[in-house]
Design goal:
- This protein is of the alpha+beta class.
- It contains eight helices and four strands.
- Helix 4 (111-135) packs parallel to helix 8 (238-261).
- The protein is elongated and about 65 Å long.
- The two termini are 29 Å apart.
Length: 263
């Protein structure tokens, strides 16, 4: 077994981690991948030489550079069963709250809730792709990523168009109470997801990536709650539209990253 460490200068968020994981998924010689997003490093535990791995990484244009390679016979390959259970749990929670927030967002006329629901859906896609990275074939992963990316892109564009329509049209007042109450429950759900993910002690970062996504969701939930408070304070629907468009942009950006996985 060999351990090779790469510096990847443009790996600054979990989307790049998923992009790399998908790109390397068909390399049979790879036994384990360890990501450190903070320090922008990837450690590959593999058999044989590095030529195929280096070529695939270079194709991603993420400024990858081999730092070191050495023999490491002591590496322990993690059992992924517990990780799968956790990922299935957080996927289920996110998809449930996507349904809740989308329904309540439409009824309460809150674009903030609708946008947050799509962010929850985007996270469900990420968790699903993480599961496929462990259990699925390369062809299946790419087809799933492509379908998920286009669906997310379609919804994000519709959301942004609706926000712009509301900005230039008659002001629509969302139900601020529904915004705040539903977002508080979504916040609790994301804190629960973060707790479940933190219980996994593995340094392998589809788990680390999932933790970062969920931490970002906590911030977004807080933003929607704040928007609800501002809607009530200023008797204006604009705070809801502003948080909505910001989250839709995040979802739109995520859809392009997911589509990159399908290439």
């Amino acid at each position: 077994m060999h351990k090779s460490t790469f510096t990847i200068l443009k790996m600054d968020c979990p989307s790049e981690e998923q992009l790399i994981r998908m790109k390397l998924s068909g390399v049979n010689s790879i036994k384990k991948l360890d990501f450190d997003i903070t320090n922008r490093t990837l450690t590959v535990f593999h058999l044989g030489d590095l030529k195929e791995i280096e070529n695939l990484l270079s194709q991603l244009n993420l400024s990858s550079q081999l730092e070191s390679t050495e023999k490491d016979e002591a590496v322990e390959l993690d059992d992924s069963l517990n990780q799968k259970r956790i990922l299935w749990s957080v996927l289920g929670i996110n998809f449930l709250f996507f349904s809740i927030e989308m329904t309540t967002g439409l009824f309460s006329k809150s674009m903030g809730l609708v946008a947050d629901s799509l962010d929850m859906l985007a996270d469900s896609f990420v968790y699903g792709l993480s599961l496929l990275a462990v259990t699925g074939s390369t062809t299946r992963k790419k087809k799933t990523a492509k379908a998920a990316g286009y669906f997310q892109l379609f919804l994000a564009v519709i959301g942004i168009v609706e926000v712009l329509r509301r900005f230039v049209g008659d002001e629509i007042m969302p139900n601020f109470k529904t915004m705040i109450v539903v977002s508080i429950f979504a916040l609790i759900a994301n804190v629960l997801c973060l707790y479940l993910l933190q219980r996994d002690k593995s340094k392998e970062v589809h788990m680390q990536a999932s933790k970062i996504f969920t931490s970002n969701d906590v911030i977004i939930n807080t933003g929607v709650i704040l928007a609800g408070v501002l809607v009530n304070t200023f008797n204006s629907g604009y705070p809801d539209l502003i948080i909505g468009v910001l989250v839709f942009i995040v979802v739109l950006r995520g859809s392009f990253r997911i589509l990159n996985l399908a290439k």
